[in-house]
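Attaching the record inline, Q. Sequence:
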Amino acid sequence: MIGIGPKRASPHLTTGALGFAIMCLFCLLAGCESPSPGRAATQNPVYSPSMVHQADGPALLRLGVTQIPGMTITQVEQADLSGALEANGQIAYDEQNVAQIVSRVAGRIEATRALQWDRVRRGEPIVLLYSPDFMTAEAEYLEGLSTRKITPSASGTMADAMVSAARRKLELLGMSGDDIAALKTPSPTIWMRAPISGTVVKNTASIGGAVNPGDVLYLLGTTNVVWITADIYEDDLPRIHVGQELEAVTTAYAGEVFHGSIARISPDIDPSTHTAKVRCAVRNPDGRLKPEMLARVRIVTQPAHALVIPQESLVFETDSYYVFVDRGSGMFERRKVEIASWHESGMTRVTAGLHAGEKVVAGESLQVNELWHQANGIVSGT
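Structure, as predicted:
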């Protein structure tokens, strides 16, 4: 009789189950350590910028095959300029209509008859000066007149020469012809008169104040014609000439136009702005245009052309603007440019540094500039 007892597990089944469990555990551990399929895709691309130095040209930035996301290239365009040049300027006195009252002796101020901003007429007495030099010169002149009266005719020529020399001395000391003609007795004081009709621009005279030869006591100016000095870019200079008619406007008198012409063009160019000073003579018969006022001049000229690029192409550092010029094959040249304002929003005018048809970086120009610094071993911000 065969007894029925409990069954024992097969040794082959036990070993297989154990192996399967170990394999599952290994796969589980391996799965925890494996990288996520999407992780590499989310990493930013690695740039390896480098500099290429040329023996006969500027250093170039090589960006490699990988392009900067968002970087775009645009062409330098040639745009039409309007038939007028406009420039900002400042009003000043015409130097040809400014005069000074200068002390020609050492002395003291006894009285004054004009204050700053007063209007005076030519020949009007302005300041009374005291100086022994006046008395000495007047005495010599009066003595010469007396000598000429009593001198025999044979010596008249010498007497005339003495009187002429004494009169010339009085004129050099500042006396007018009328004052000399009215002279009767020597006096240590004389009135200094206005050399022109105009406005007292500057007054340094004070009663009792000591003066020395060469001291400027008054500065007088007229405003019938004023100057407006404006800056014109060098590439616009062929479009203007002396005598060219212009219009001027100010914020003080909005809508009113003042007329004038170009009086002077500076022979020098400002190296930092590539502009030349242009001095415009503007008629101002009623005196409303005041020195130091800001004005804008408009000069009618022949049409011309200008180079324009997007404003986002510009990189500003320290005190200059730069762009990155595409030289092909992933090479870029960092080039300094000069710019001017442009009427179209988002664009800027280039006055120096680029040529029509060249290509420059537009989008992400700041990123390209950062890579340029890295390739040169320059830490940004230093």
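The helical segments are 11-33, 132-150, 156-172, 177-181, 365-375. The chain has a mean pLDDT of 84.

More tomorrow.
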